Amino acid sequence: MLCQECGKRPASLHFTKIVGGEKTEFHICESCAREKGEGIPGTTNGFSIHSLLSGLLDFEPSGGASGAGPGYQAKGQTIRCDNCGLTYAQFSKMGRFGCSKCYSQFGDKLDPILKRVHGNAVHVGKVPKRSGTRIKLKREIESLRRELHERIEREEFENAAQIRDRIRELERSVAEG
Amino acid sequence: MERLTAVPETGRLNAVGKFETIRLSDLSELERRVLVEKHLISPNLANESRGGAVILSDNESVSIMVNEEDHLRIQCLYPGFQISEAWELASRIDDIFEEVADYAFDERRGFLTSCPTNVGTGIRASVMMHLPGLVLTQQINRILSAITQVGLAVRGIYGEGSEALGNLFQISNQITLGQSEGEIIENLHSVAKQIIDHERAARERMVHESRIRLEDRVFRSYGILSHASIMDSKESAQRLSDVRLGIDLGLIQDVTPRMMNELLVLTQPGFLQQNSGEKLSAEQRDIRRAELIRQHLHRKSDHGGV
Ligand SMILES: [Zn+2]
Ligand SMILES: [Zn+2]
Question: What pTM was computed for the model?
Answer without folding.
Answer: 0.75
